[in-house]
Amino acid sequence: MPQARSIRGINGSDSRLPLYQRLRDEFLLQIAEGHWVPGTPIPTEAEMTREYEVAIGTVRKAIDTLVQDGILDRQQGRGTFVRRPEFTRSLSRFFRQVDQQGNTCIPESDILSLESEPASQHVRQALALKARARVIHLERVRRIDGKPLFHERIWLSEERFAALLDTPKDALGDLLYPAYEALCGQLIAHAQETLSVGIADALTSAMLGIPVETPVMVIDRIATGFDGTPLELRRSYGIASDFRYQIDIA
Amino acid sequence: MPQARSIRGINGSDSRLPLYQRLRDEFLLQIAEGHWVPGTPIPTEAEMTREYEVAIGTVRKAIDTLVQDGILDRQQGRGTFVRRPEFTRSLSRFFRQVDQQGNTCIPESDILSLESEPASQHVRQALALKARARVIHLERVRRIDGKPLFHERIWLSEERFAALLDTPKDALGDLLYPAYEALCGQLIAHAQETLSVGIADALTSAMLGIPVETPVMVIDRIATGFDGTPLELRRSYGIASDFRYQIDIA
DNA sequence: CAGTGGTCTAGACCACTCT
DNA sequence: GAGTGGTCTAGACCACTGT
Asked: Taking the mean position of all CA atoms in its chain, how far away is CA B119?
């Protein structure tokens, strides 16, 4: 019988906070520390009730907030899981990405280069690297039916992602994040994207097949792990006229 | 003692749906029909418990979902209210709108023209107007500290907004939606915005003080009332280099 | 102070998934 | 059939707002 580690006093949480919020913090800790990982269900509601000595409604409310935030995923009859983030929600999905049959699809990835280089100051800051750290730099083009959609520049800490240097660049597939997980054990949990408008430089315009100095959408992304460490820095260039973004205001 | 109108059978809702979802639908109906309006609290949880003959937890869950969707607003000790939509969440807030003191602020509105005209086919469709209906067309520039931020074109059904034609255009103030409510009794509840990139035409470039053919962000907005009727069509042009949009992917 | 929403409990029963 | 999350109930007590 495991010791019930009552949530009421522990955990560093402000004990004036409602129980369900302290529970929520505790759950986030379990995820950040890697005790709960995507793929295996987290403990059942009944177990948590015993473990933390709270009512099941309180456990449910704590889980509710995390489900709401897209961090957990309930599956009736199966269990509750840590969600893999849905990068289909990226700003990049607002580019016209349909194939000849009219289906939305994942663009093909064509990696132009993959090499080690010293981190520039900007990259070192964004990835929180030590002085004189090295990074892996990828350049790639993403296409649908051969039509270029994005030109992308990506930087990764060489220390964490060294395994990529031993992999032929044509073997990485169309999606990088599964490769990060499989080859380097690095799980991407969150990302922050910033959209702005720029002007195509020589390389980008050549890659996208547009005249130089045409407007392009620029998407800057910083992707982080479950513990908040920045793992990937990415800049994507897309043709501005292919872009259309829609929101609802309630 | 009013008749308890049990939610269990009525309301056109599919009776296989959970109670709280049928309650939610019922609440949305109260809002759409104007029985619940912003400014006065909706009935208390205890009242609804009696009215619909359900447990208070079920009422709370129904309200929870509407609060989550930004439709209701709970205020402890005061009551629960129908929310006025926050148009501070518009895409337009992603333009650099700070004054000389560095504070975010509401741009000044300078109405260039306000006149009645026959609806074009595009406007008629967007506002769901009858054939040969007339519309009110506004053109305005929005500025901060005198610096132009947007050029806007706005169309409204003349039938609903006739009172605007009797108002001097300088008396409308910086925000139109309060004027719609005060002068025309038209409450904006939702809006849908679409962002794309275009090229400034002669008028827009003159209004924004930029060269012709410079890239501009184009925000198309359709704003609707609580019952879903489209009320306003709006197109805003802003300087692309002032634009920066940020999202989080969880 | 009365009345509101906010938190928490304790349990019943249902619907779904897997074996 | 055993075990999971989903729905619903009934009530206690707390925290905040207005008078």
From this structure: 21
